[in-house]
Amino acid sequence: MPPLASPPAVSRKPPAGPPGIVVGVDGSDASMWALDRAFTEATALVLPLHVVAVVNPAPGGYSPGMADLVEESVERLLQGMSEVTVRALDTVQARHPAAAAPSLHVVLGSPVEILLATSNLHHTVVVGARGNGGFARLLLGSVATALVHHGGCPVLVVPARNTGTRPSVHLPD
């Protein structure tokens, strides 16, 4: 299917309002299914959809003087995540032609902290059961676990399906 006629503008701030459905996207299979389900929820409840992708380039923080050195790399990470997320939106939104256009937020920070703070302002947060973390043995990812236990609104955790029908996003080499 062709891409969206006009992709949504990318905000570098978490969604503040109006209250709606928030979906965390990281490019994983589970986050693609979460995005698909979030479109369904937003349409059914007639609420705005806020798509949030969080880039956390240095989970441990930067040592003194390093912030200036990595600024260009961080900008590239944010741009790359924006492109991946727009492609995911193109793919999934084509399956929901009646849905209202979502807002897109690509934010720098901790995914857990950003989504927890955002959960206090919205109706529902939708996330995949496991994202792009490195611990495949976990049944529920760290972001989903934190949201389920500490979220400020209902949390819908969507597993990745192994049906072969995943809306695929192919990245150029």
Distance between the termini: 21 Å
What is the CATH first-level class name? Alpha Beta
Strand content: 15-25%
* CATH homology superfamily: HUPs
Oligomer: single chain
Strand order of the largest sheet: 1-4-3-2-5-6
Largest sheet: 6 strands, parallel
Features:
alpha/beta, 173 residues, Rossmann fold, 4 helices, six-stranded parallel sheet
Structural overview:
The protein is an alpha/beta fold. The protein has a single domain (10-57, 66-158), classed as 3-Layer(aba) Sandwich (Rossmann fold). Helices cover 36% and strands 16% of the residues. The chain has four helices and six strands. It has a six-stranded parallel beta sheet, sandwiched between helices. α4 links the parallel β5 and β6 (155-158). The longest helix has 28 residues, at 66-93. It is globular, with a radius of gyration of 16 Å. The two termini are 21 Å apart.
Q: What does this entry show, briefly?
A:
The protein has 173 residues and is an alpha/beta fold.
